[in-house]
Design brief:
eleven-stranded mixed beta sheet; globular; 8 helices; 298 residues; single chain; 24% strand
Length: 298
């Protein structure tokens, strides 16, 4: 086959200003690995994105809006009122982003089944915080993800109310501090073979603002898990870091031909860490090519 006459101009237009370098090759055959164009390579397309919006979508919606409008305006996306997700036709979209909120309160059983059907047909949900918890909670169970919250609650004994009543204000304030995790930078370890980790180091810092994480899943992939000594900066209760080391921050789970990408915290919080933005981009761009698939790919 002969190249078109303006091939070099077309290549310049495609890669220009995007930080990409184009190299010419004489053959698609390689000495190691898969030949160029082999079946192991995934076809990527520009995804059509729906973003859960409105009063039931949570405050995180604004950061998603800013992420697209100010950071990556070349994506096509539509703001969809969260209350409509239960009845609307989602087939025209490839990705649904849920940045927190209370979907359980607006979808109902019929809405959950509508979402499940769309995902099983190939749709992908990217969710965090309340949106991620909704995906695995009782009543929706769209995934098998379980959410862990800080310290386990102990059974209250009969004398506990009297003990609490005798505590001083200082003691109560100290207990309140010990039970809270106001936020900090934590280290997570990534699965380097998973496409969600492409372009990222094997260990990275994430911003954690609360005490929630995911139980280690055996039904999906634990893409990012907390290291044993995970606290890099900030404050955490004495036992919190130890418990956190047994939890995941990011998991990916197949749902039929689709999948769910779930973050324990908001990766776009105040657009603070670019490495977390890379994860969101990986989910959006690579997810449509790897949906329903495993870790590896080209």
């Amino acid at each position: 086959y002969r190249n078109v006459e303006d091939l070099h101009q077309i290549i310049d237009e495609v890669v220009g200003g995007r930080g990409v370098v184009a190299y010419g090759i004489n053959t698609g055959l390689v000495e190691e690995g898969d030949d160029l164009g082999a079946g192991s390579y995934r076809t990527l397309k520009k995804p059509k994105i729906a973003v859960a919006a409105g009063q039931d979508a949570g405050n995180g919606f604004g950061e998603v809006w800013n992420f697209f409008d100010q950071g990556y305006p070349f994506f096509d996306y539509a703001n969809v009122d969260a209350s409509r997700l239960g009845s609307m036709d989602l087939s025209e979209y490839d990705v649904l982003m849920v940045a927190g909120g209370n979907l359980a309160g607006v979808l109902g059983d019929r809405g959950v089944e509508n979402l499940r059907s769309w995902m099983q047909g190939g749709g992908m949900v990217i969710a965090w915080e309340g949106g991620a918890r909704f995906m695995g909670q009782e009543g929706s169970e769209l995934t098998n993800a379980t959410t862990w919250v800080g310290e386990e609650e102990e059974d209250e004994d009969e004398d506990q109310p009297a003990v609490e009543a005798r505590k001083t204000l200082a003691e109560r304030e100290q207990e309140s501090k010990e039970g809270r995790t106001p936020g900090g930078l934590y280290k997570v370890v990534l699965d380097p073979d998973h496409w969600m980790a492409f372009g990222l180091p094997e260990e990275m810092a994430i911003l954690k603002r609360g005490d929630r994480g995911f139980g280690i899943t055996d039904r999906g992939v634990n893409v990012a898990v907390f290291s044993e000594e995970s606290l890099l900066s900030g404050y955490a209760p004495s036992d919190f870091e130890e418990e956190l080391s047994k939890k995941a921050w990011l998991i990916v789970e197949n749902v039929g031909r689709g999948q769910a990408v779930l973050f324990a915290d908001n990766p776009l919080y105040r657009m603070f860490l670019e490495s977390e933005h890379q994860m969101v981009l990986n989910a959006i761009v690579l997810g449509t090519g790897f949906r329903g698939g495993g870790r590896r790919g080209r």
